[in-house]
Structure formats: C-alpha cells, structure tokens
Amino acid sequence: MAVLGLLSVTLEVPALDPGVKFYTDAGMTAEIDGSTAQLRCADQNRPSITLLGGHDRKRLHHVALRAEDLAGIAENVPGAGGKVVTAPDGFDANGLWVEDPHGTLYHLVEHPADAAQKAGVPFEINAPGRIVRTRRSAILPGASYPPARPLRLGHALLFSPDVPASVAFVTEGLGMGLADKSQDIIAFCCATKNSDHHVLAFAKSPGIGFHHASFQVSDPDEVGRGGRALLAKSERGDWGLGRHTIGSNFFHYIQDPWGSWFEYYSDMDFIDDYALWSPTNYELSDSLASWGPEVPHDFVHNYEADAQAAFGSAPAHA
To answer: Which residues have a Cβ under 8 Å from the Cβ of 185 and sit 6 or more positions away?
Structure first.
C-alpha cells in the first residue's frame, strides 16, 4: 500500500475570477462550472488545481493523491494519528478520504498513471572541458518563445503545526518516504518508487494551510521567462530565479491573489527506489535555497492560520 503521486489541490476561495485569471496567466487552461473552476496543465484532461468559489476566505480544502491498496492505507491511518472520514458534502465518495492529526484532508484514489512525458530539447551548457553546443546560439530572440505552459503538477507544500507528526502520518499511514528535512522546520516526502524528490512537503506554522503548488516547465530558461511574465501580470510578490539545495530544482515563485504561492520549476532530483536513498537532515541555512534573491518577508507566512486565529473557524471540510 502506498501513495504513487500527486493529483491535485483543491482550495476554497471568496471569488473565482482572480484565481482563474492568475492561473490562466500562468499558462493553465480553465473550465468553469458554476462556482467551481478546474485548472489544467498542458495536454492533461484532469485538473491540477480546483477552486471552490463563494467562501469567506481562501483556505485549503483537500489534496488528492494517486494511490494503490486503499484498504491497506485505511488500516494504517489510525495508527499514524489520522482517521478515515466520509466524503465532504458535494464530493464523490469514491476512493478513500482521510484526515491527518491536524485536520488536513486527503483524498486517495486509484487513478491511472499519466502518459509518459515526451522528451524535450535538451538543456545544453557549454562547460570547461565539455563543449556540447557548437556553431549555434543557445538563446533565440525573446519574441520567438511562446508563453510558459506548466506541464504537470509536481508537488505541493503544506503548512503544519507539527512537521514530524505530518511526516509520520504520510510515511506510516500513506506509505510515502521521507526524502530530506531541515530540523523540525521543513520536510520533503516522496513516493517510494520512481518519484520526484518530493511530492508533498511540510513547513512549520501555527496552523494548517496551503503554501504553494509547484509546476514543471521544460527548462531553467522557461522558469525564468515564465516567472517574469507572470509577475508582470500579477503585480504581487515573487521569489526567484534561484535554485534549491533540497531537491536541486531551479525555481521562481509568484504570489497568488490570496498570499500563497505558485512555483515554476525545472530539474528535480529523482528517487527511483526509496530503499536505496538516504535522507539528509540539512542545516536551516540550506532549507530554502542554494542561491537566489533575498527571501520575501512573508514567504513562509501562513495567512490561513491568521484567519483561523481571528475567526476560530474549523477546517474547510468540517
């Protein structure tokens, strides 16, 4: 029994229009049905982000994960501090709905794997003693490039009041693996076979919530181009271009309309067999980036926790 990958993130939001504009500006396609918007990546027929409009504020509703042996997961969840729950009102009862020790909701489904990605043009770098590109330029005129198009949802980072407990829940209850961590502040978890370095990650916060969703693009240049273009349209905060130590990916984050973040990424570490991987406990100085601009003051601020404290509201699915 195990989680095999990430399918989608569902958010409650006050109004659909700002979110639909933001995600379509980011290169996704939108399908709107009443108060629900589904945002899709290029060439995918399922949503990566679902927005539920008409709520008092933005907050995480649930995360959907592709999994196998749901019966086995259901047996393990209580021992990992969570519980099996009924489907929220308005949602399909198929698959398995579970809640972690802090109230974060997950929907696990037996879903076919995505089609294998088509190989793109290699990102070639002429390095000392290693010339791989001759008699041609690596960069075309700017107008030659189409807008950035996210290829797939790679991972999501969630807030947690107890990061080790969240890790224990997804590893012991959902069959994932701890890839790496930095003390008890942030942790990165993967599937145990043929997985990106992280599928779910957790950052310490006073409450639960959604920090960011990360979308793969073709190469670091598209990370940079896409990030600058989305920043110009959103006119909000950003962080990038940079490169993470943990996971090794190039990144550019742009703040969404509610204070959380959207990440373009390229070049992620890959764990083909978790049994052959050794997790590292990194120093806090390496927890965010190897290099990049100064981190925004509110990059790890949980605005959902602020609202929970102010209004004393229950989790979105309660």
So the answer is: 163, 203, 204, 284, 287
Structure token digits, residue 70: 């749901």
Does residue 310 register a pLDDT over 70? no
Q: Max alpha carbon distance in the chain (Å)?
A: 64
Global pTM reads 0.96
Q: How far is residue 34's CA from residue 16's CA, in Å, rounded to a whole number?
A: 10
What per-residue string of b and e applies to 130-149 under the rule 16 or more CB within 10 Å gives b?
eeeeeeeeeeeeeeeeeebb
Question: Cα separation of 196 and 154, whole Å?
Answer: 7
Over residues 83-105, the mean pLDDT reads 97
The predicted structure's pLDDT at residue 43: 84
DSSP letter for each residue of 56-122? SS-EEEEEEEEEE-HHHHHHHTGGGT-EEEPPPTTS---SEEEE-TTS-EEEEE--PPPPPPPP---
For tokens 């107890």, what's the residue? 162
3-class secondary structure, 243: strand
Q: Which two tokens stand for residue 207?
A: 């409450």
Calpha distance 132→48 (Å, rounded): 36
d(CA 44, CA 152): 8
Strand partners, 249: none
In the beta sheet, which residues pair with residue 241?
none
CA-nearest of 13, 55, 47 to 258 is: 13
Nearest of 237, 235, 208 to residue 302 by alpha carbon: 208
Taking only the tens place, the pLDDT of each residue in 144-199 is: 999 999 999 999 999 999 999 999 999 999 999 999 999 999 999 999 999 999 99
Q: Mean pLDDT across the stretch 32-51?
A: 96
Residue 148 in 3-state DSSP?
coil
Contact 60, 40 (CB under 8 A): no
- Residue where the block lists tokens 């390229």: 266
Which of these, 22, 19, 60, 18, lies nearest to 303 by C-alpha position? 60
- pLDDT score for 192: 97
